[in-house]
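<derive_structure_tokens>
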Amino acid sequence: MGEYIRGVVVKLHVTPEQEVLFKQNYGCTRKTHNELLNKYKAKYGDSNKIPTKNELNQFLNESKKELPYLEETESTSLQQARDDLHKAFKNNFKSKRHNTPKFHSKKKTRPSFRQTIRKDKRPVENNTLTLRKHGKVTFSTSIEYLDLLNSPNTKFNNITVYYDGLNHYAAFNIETDAPEQLPLTEEYIGCDINSNKNGWLVTSERQKEFFDVDHDNQMIKHVNKLMSKCRKGSRRWKKLEKRLQKWYNKRTNQLNDYIEKLTYNLVKEYDTIVFEKNYSTIKILIGGEQNMIFPLSRFIKRLKDKFQLYKSESDGVQFVKPHNTSRTCHHCGHINKELKVKTRNWKCPKCGKILDRDINAAINILNRWFNGDLPEKYLN
């Protein structure tokens, strides 16, 4: 136990009384964050000073005295809000990538709270979760996750409860045995990332990946149009709002599921996956009229995580320089400097080979990782 930290999300089935308590806890957690940040700004202004945990704890005690209803909320969730704010200050000081802590609003902040788990306490029994101040809550999940949560080798660190606009969920942070390593296949692949309709991911094996959410986006657009004709706050408007949230959630779940399955299948099949270094500058627009940006950085990160988890001895994700990968003929090495961006298929002026721009780039990416030694199966 303790070899591997992972997260498991389950859907909660709450009673009307529990839903009221949940929403109160969401609000108090958000209020605590805002109060602590407000007291910090009143004391230090716009300085970059990192507050200590003792200072934030003092702010928390003061807030509880000023706002008595905070005392009625489960205490560790407020403490977690304090710790999250302290971590946000530290991250902002370490790296410019992290924004300065901001006030949480009702519209832009996902309602959530987190509870810690006491030592030697098991919050899960069969399909029932026990939360402090909220009692027992039933949940549903897959048989695999249910067995994992009820396993005696599973240690619970904390539980985050959140609301997506329709349903309540619990995300478990657990420590368990590491999964078995996948066998090495001694296979490798080059991948070219595109921002066009020719497949957002094209491989040196001549495979093209597509992710289609056009129907979801059209339904989101349709429901938004219907809502614009209703009076805000009316019964029909509220009904359409739930319907809109349902489509947003479905689109997000489809994307997350697609990334998880694709990354696992790639790691299972290949020991090395090669990309261009400039992948972070490419924006992949998917979804027709209402474009959404594919989370490419998250896709690469999940690949790295899965290689570390399932194939720690493999080369994993590798990167090469992107210069002229599309313009260089993988067959003879000639660089076609006249090739335009809109040209998807072109004929090499030197050897006469007809090339698909993206497949050719993927082969060149893999070829560069081999330092010019290209396997014969890619030459045919």
Observations:
- The radius of gyration is 26 Å.
